[in-house]
Amino acid sequence: MAHVKAGGTAKGNKDSISKRLGVKIYGGQNCISGNVIVRQKGTKFYPGPGTDIGKDFTIFATATGVVSFITKRGKRYVSVLPSHAK
Fold first, then answer.
1. What's the order of all strands across the beta sheet hosting 65-72?
2. How far is CA 80 from the centre of its chain?
3. pTM (2 decimals)?
4. pLDDT of residue 6
5. 13 forms bridges with which residues in the sheet?
């Protein structure tokens, strides 16, 4: 007979912490060099002009301008286009 009531109910009551993945700066928004644009696992988005990819697949800006998302040959690319507004 169990001496502690409901002793085993908390065993599977765990959850992992969220990783805060996703798009951080959307298309049409301004960014500066070094800003993180997309945090992802794997290459859901590929780097285009004005961006680069880190070892954890984070896409970040290497130029200052406006973020643009395009699809080319079935792949989604993120680029930073120079803004002409001064």
1. 30-31, 65-72, 75-81, 45-47
2. 15
3. 0.81
4. 62
5. none
The alpha-helical segments, DSSP class H, found in the chain are none
Q: How far apart are CA 31 and CA 55, in angstroms?
A: 21
Pair type for strands 36-39 and 45-47: unpaired
Q: What is the Cα–Cα distance from 38 to 26, expressed in whole angstroms?
A: 9
- Bridge-based pairing of strands 36-39 and 59-61 is antiparallel
Domains for the chain: give ranges and CATH numbers.
22-81 (2.40.50.100)
Find residue 52's DSSP bridge partners. 60
> How buried is residue 51: exposed, middle or buried, by Cβ count under 10 Å (0-12/13-18/19+)?
buried
Which parts of the chain register pLDDT below 50? none
CA angle 22–28–34, rounded 5-degree value: 60
